[in-house]
Write a structure and sequence with these properties.
globular; 6-stranded antiparallel beta sheet
């Protein structure tokens, strides 16, 4: 029996902000070209959370005429929205994109769950996301979820250990950098292309 006469205080939720980038098709065409060119110039890339696939080195985002710079500027309004939704004080000059990179995952490639240390927010943007390319996975960061727990007879926000999000091209996910996340195996025959970046907010108080 569930008692109706109660108040449930859902404390300390974990946000993942999901946006659809304006004019994403136009951005994705140019971003794909840029990323594939990077791949041709640097076949080896770097190894981080990717298992198989290709992980680029950090984008060079100094040239104001480059597509990567224009994309970074476009995402600023979404980052600002996430900050304000959190209830944090927004000081635009103190919000810094510390790093941005791309990952190309072919069939059977995936990204293990991981976090992004030394930053406040992280983001994943989908340049190319064919059907069955793999869901974005999020692990419950509360330490108690890693201990023993009773058997569940239905899924709720209180007993969930892992959540999986369907993603599409043009989707931008912004989330706390400490949130363990990954991407499932790409089961399609096409590439999945993701741009990730980190945000540092330099307005901490003692």
């Amino acid at each position: 029996m569930i008692i109706d006469n109660k108040e449930t205080l859902n404390l300390f939720p974990q946000p993942v902000f999901k946006y659809k980038i304006d004019n994403f098709k136009e951005y994705n065409k140019k971003l794909s070209e840029y990323i594939y060119n990077l791949n041709k110039e640097d076949k080896e890339g770097v190894q981080r959370s990717n298992r198989g696939g290709w992980h680029s080195n950090s984008f060079k985002i100094v040239d104001t005429n480059s597509i990567q710079y224009k994309f970074m500027k476009e995402t600023t309004k979404y980052v600002f929205d996430a900050i304000q939704t959190y209830g944090w004080e927004l000081e635009p000059k103190k919000v810094i994109c510390s790093e941005m990179w791309a990952i190309i995952n072919k069939k059977n490639n995936f990204n293990i769950r991981h976090t992004h240390p030394n930053c406040n927010l992280s983001a994943a943007y989908y340049v190319k996301a064919p059907k069955d390319c793999g869901k974005f996975t999020i692990e419950n960061p509360h330490s108690v979820s890693k201990h023993s727990y009773p058997i569940s007879n239905r899924k709720t926000e209180f007993n969930s250990k892992i959540e999986k999000l369907e993603i599409e091209e043009g989707d931008l996910l912004i989330f706390p950098a400490y949130l363990p996340h990954g991407v499932e195996e790409n089961k399609s025959n096409e590439d999945r292309i993701v741009i990730s970046f980190n945000i540092i907010i330099n307005n901490f108080r003692d």
